[in-house]
Design brief:
single chain; 379 residues; alpha+beta; Aminopeptidase; OB fold (Dihydrolipoamide Acetyltransferase, E2P); 2 domains; nine-stranded mixed beta sheet; five-stranded antiparallel beta sheet; 8 helices
Length: 379
């Protein structure tokens, strides 16, 4: 049995500033499988913190009962640097203030980092290849520059995630249903996860653009398999982003049930024993991420929605009006906001004052939208 609380100090970039990063390691150290979970990478998204708060209690009890056959590593609040990003009484937390980079973008391309050291060593033994790849990443991490607090933070997080078989990144949207982002190669295990979590949608893309956290870990295996098709290169079991509804959906009872459902998924994967938890249900099948439309405001205005979350809409249907706030039609005119595809309303903007280019809603359908381009993430 093992339940370990770990704290690391991130040395600040200016005098007198330090930050504490806390995480937990639970379960047998010699387990064949490892599960990595974190929440609040976007520090202004807190439902995942509550989910992992409850998950910790479940895992602690399972560990004491000897029911864990995998090691679990949990960062309930993975981005303490972003948690301190408070300005004029409002928490921000999505972007690094120093660089302007989204905290969930531009994580390292591990394939580029280690490929030159691997090619001649890979062979026909899958387990040995896994060991070699992880060893190469571990060696690369030893030389990873840790100058600024952000560098130290990323190094600490990657050092726990690189050898995991499951990597789950818990986020939330604005006002939203629960949904999942993952890869087409993980369609089957995502179907099981979606049924346990009750996900309203599962969107799949091999590369959403921007090197988001959940994509960099399977990406190294995908790229190695393409580069060395004659070698035994496996696919990691599961990596995804779990969007736990909207920012306001941080509630004890709701997120406790979310934790039970997630726990039940890991039981279904054979990683936890004991009495079965969770309430799996049949949910919609996964779709290509290019079938999700993100509608943006044509001009600044005040939103007046005429559809609800989860509502089925048809292409060409009005989903909102944008009330004019300036110009000849100020406070008199309205611009209809029209659905460009058929599907369900997955998310809405809680801020009813929007500016040009601001996101209004996401619609998940089944038709591939060529207009989505190559960069499929919201920002």
């Amino acid at each position: 049995m093992s339940f370990e609380k770990i704290s690391k100090t991130l040395v600040g970039d200016s005098p007198g500033k330090t930050t504490e990063l806390t995480y937990f390691r639970i379960g047998p150290a010699n387990a064949e499988k490892k599960v990595y979970l974190h929440a609040a990478l976007h520090a202004d998204e807190q439902p995942g913190i509550m989910v992992l708060h409850h998950m910790l209690e479940l895992l602690k009890a399972a560990d004491q009962a000897g029911e864990l056959s995998a090691q679990f590593v949990l960062f309930p609040m993975v981005n303490p640097l972003g948690m301190g990003d408070i300005e004029f009484g409002q928490h921000q937390g999505r972007y690094d203030r120093d660089t302007g980079i989204n905290h969930n973008r531009q994580w390292p391309d591990l394939f580029s980092a280690v490929d030159q050291s691997l090619g001649e060593w890979l062979g026909s033994d899958e387990k040995e290849n896994i060991r070699l790849v992880r060893e190469a990443v571990s060696n690369w991490l030893q030389d990873y520059p840790q100058v600024k607090a952000r560098d130290q933070w990323r190094h600490a997080v990657m050092s726990e995630a690189y050898d995991a078989d499951y990597v789950f990144d818990l986020h939330c949207d604005d006002e939203s249903l629960l949904y999942i982002y993952s890869l087409p190669q993980q369609r089957e295990t995502m179907r099981v996860l979606a049924n346990y979590t009750g996900a309203a949608a599962t969107m799949l893309a091999e590369d959403g653009g921007g090197n988001s956290f959940d994509e960099v870990w399977p990406a190294i295996w995908l790229k190695l398999a393409k580069e060395y098709p004659d070698k035994a290169i496996p696919m990691m079991r599961a990596s995804c982003t779990l969007e736990y509804r909207g920012q306001i959906d941080t509630f004890d009872a709701l997120n406790s049930k979310d934790a039970e459902n997630l726990y039940g998924y890991f039981q279904a994967e054979g990683l936890i024993g004991g009495e079965a938890k969770g309430s799996p249900i049949e949910v919609p099948v996964a779709t290509d991420l290019k079938a999700m439309e993100i509608i943006r405001a044509e001009h600044a205005g005040l939103l007046a929605y005429c559809v609800e979350l989860g509502e089925e809409v048809a292409k060409g249907q009005k989903i909102a009006d944008l009330i004019h706030l300036d110009g000849e039609q100020a406070f008199l005119g309205r611009t209809p906001v029209i659905a460009g595809t058929s599907g369900i309303i997955l998310s809405r903007n809680t801020n009813k004052y929007v500016w040009r280019g601001a996101g209004i809603t996401k619609i998940v359908g089944s038709d591939i939208l060529e207009s989505r381009g190559e960069f499929l993430l919201e920002d």
